[in-house]
Design a protein that fits this description.
With about 290 residues, this protein is an alpha+beta fold. The chain has two domains: about 60 residues, lipopolysaccharide transport protein A fold (Sandwich), CATH 2.60.450.20; about 180 residues, no CATH class. Helices cover about 40% and strands about 10% of the residues. The chain has an eight-stranded antiparallel beta sheet, with no helix packed on it. Strand 2 and strand 3 form a beta hairpin.
Length: about 290
């Protein structure tokens, strides 16, 4: 169906379009468009443009796009700069305090600012490589235990001391529980909910999986409550989330991959291959 053209008595021409809009133009180049959603746009002969939105709000701009007062037509004051301020540079000394737990990162926004202050990009180029990319970005500034490549080893060792000799299924449940526990805490989300446990070994194995999930969650909570060491752990998780583009779903998978590497479960037939991608925010069970 084509458009309908109407000639008006004042010399203007109205076109009724197929999309429900109506466009009226005048000989002096002024025009008015009524849209199907109730909004409208009026272009005056001097180039000013008035937009009226469905809720009744209006904007007016001059021919160069500068904002004008819709009532008086006078120029509006320039709005304050809303751009994100550049954070001050983060020194190695400041970062060391953060990693030692002497200083707590307030939240994810603060963690993002720390990485920007270190000129570290908030993106992971390759799956399971966030920590190694952070280590490369920091270069020689951080070495040894402070290097991102080793950030979580001391806490994971405590978990693995308990679960290393267990059956693979329970070990995987426990490690995933720890990863979710520390990530939920860093994001201010409290305690992760219990996942669904479904085992080919039946109800007894599912009950055992639940026990190990609870045990590893409790261990993670104890670690996070352990004074400066707990602050250090939370800080490191927040920096990891920031590195992962502020996406905790990526971060929890990076932690999971790190746990699997440290437990020897990162081979072709290991836990990482069996669970290559954990869900978020609902935890992956078994």
């Amino acid at each position: 169906m084509g458009s309908t053209i109407i000639q008006n008595d004042d010399g203007s021409e109205t076109v009724e379009n197929d999309d429900g809009s109506r466009t009226t133009t005048w000989p002096d180049s002024a025009s008015h468009v009524d849209y199907a959603d109730g909004s409208s746009m009026t272009t005056y002969s001097d180039g000013r443009v008035m937009n009226v939105y469905p809720d009744g709000t209006k904007t007016l701009n001059d021919v160069n796009g500068n904002p004008l007062d819709p009532t008086t037509g006078k120029p509006l004051l320039e709005p304050p700069d809303q751009s994100i301020p550049t954070p001050p540079s983060t020194t190695v000394e400041q970062l060391t305090e953060i990693l030692d737990g002497a200083s707590a990162i307030a939240d994810l926004d603060a963690a993002n600012g720390i990485l920007r202050g270190l000129a570290v990009t908030a993106v992971v180029d390759k799956q399971y490589s966030a920590l190694s990319e952070l280590a490369k970005a920091f270069g020689e500034a951080l070495k040894g235990e402070l290097s991102p490549a080793n950030w979580f080893i001391q806490w994971l060792k405590m978990v693995l001391q308990v679960v290393k000799s267990m059956e693979t299924e329970e070990r995987g449940v426990a490690m995933r529980s720890w990863c979710y526990t520390v990530t939920y805490d860093a994001m201010g989300m409290g305690i992760p909910p219990d996942p669904t446990f479904s085992s080919l070994r039946g109800a007894d194995q599912e009950a055992l999986n639940k026990e190990w999930w609870d045990a590893a969650r409790n261990q993670g909570e104890e670690q996070l409550a352990d004074g400066k060491r707990g602050v250090s752990l939370r800080n490191r998780v927040l920096l990891l989330v920031a590195k992962c583009g502020a996406d905790p779903a990526i971060a929890v998978n990076e932690l999971w991959a790190t746990a699997c590497r440290n437990s020897g479960d990162d081979g072709n037939a290991g836990l990482l291959a069996a669970y290559p991608s954990l869900s978020w925010p609902e935890p992956t069970g078994a």
